[in-house]
Design a protein that fits this description.
With about 250 residues, the protein is an alpha+beta fold. The protein contains 7 helices and 8 strands, in the order H-H-H-H-H-E-E-E-H-E-E-E-E-E-H. The strands form 2 sheets. It has a 5-stranded antiparallel beta sheet, with helices on one face. Helix 1 packs across helix 2, helix 2 runs antiparallel to helix 3 and helix 3 crosses helix 4. The longest helix has 30 residues. The chain starts with a helix and ends with a helix.
């Protein structure tokens, strides 16, 4: 049974196909006005539907077998692969109407098909990325005093630790780390509602990021997610011990 979200997504795709198909039918690129009304509209909406169906299948294969590919590489590969069935459709239609392409023209036709496919895939990927970012919850408990200073890709990441470096602050997340201009005390105030604690004069650690504890020479170290190690000073050790950190 189709869920409401899937139905909404399908309706959005149909509206997009009709809108782009109508736009291309009016524009009539590549001398497609020769088909006349309404066939030019069926021509472009049909090709858009073919490309959409191919894109769904190709996207599924990429998400299953190549999930870690960079977005640019994924988009380039998808636009090329989507172009193949659309190109075959264009060539077939031209042959059926008695205007088959010459062999020396086929590479140019494929390039023109790829241009449109690349534009559609790019718009689709940007829309999906924006939708995913909007649906993804923001860093819970952290105020904008901290998150606004982070690069966009870190603003919705899971916070692991804060590390002071002179007048700068290194923010460790599950997506990497970023160096920003901010005092540790101000950053700690920005995450005061998060479950975490200061472990050293230069460190604040999120409690759920602690994986193991190492002890040696009378000191302890917290081993965090991503194999990051945070020192525990004698000043903060008793508070952490009383709070059950180790």
């Amino acid at each position: 049974m189709m869920t409401r979200d899937r139905l909404k997504s399908l309706i959005t795709d149909v509206v997009t196909i009709v809108a782009i198909g109508t736009f291309l039918a009016i524009l009539g690129p590549y001398n497609s006005h020769q088909f006349g009304v309404p066939w030019v509209w069926f021509y472009w909406t049909g090709l858009m539907t073919l490309g959409w169906a191919a894109g769904i299948g190709i996207k599924h294969l990429f998400s299953r077998f190549l999930p870690d590919w960079p977005p640019i590489a994924t988009g380039a590969a998808m636009s090329f692969l989507v172009s193949l069935p659309v190109f075959i459709g264009v060539a077939t239609i031209q042959a059926l109407v008695g205007q088959a392409f010459r062999l020396d023209v086929l590479p140019v036709v494929f390039f023109l098909v790829w241009v449109i496919s690349a534009a559609v895939v790019t718009v689709s990927m940007l829309a999906e990325q924006r939708k995913a970012q909007a649906a993804e919850p923001a860093l819970p408990g952290a105020s904008r005093a901290l998150t606004d200073k982070l690069p966009p890709r870190f603003r919705r990441a899971r916070l692991i630790a804060l590390e002071a470096e002179d007048h700068y602050l290194r923010v460790h997340t599950d997506r990497g780390d970023a160096l920003i201009l901010m005092r540790l005390s101000d950053a700690i105030a920005a995450v005061e509602t998060l479950d975490g604690a200061r472990t050293h004069r230069s460190w604040w650690v999120a409690r759920d990021a602690v994986e193991t504890v190492e002890r040696g020479d009378g000191r302890a170290r917290l081993i965090l997610a991503g194999e990051l190690a945070a020192p525990v000073s004698r000043t903060y050790a008793p508070k952490l011990r009383d709070a059950g950190w180790y």
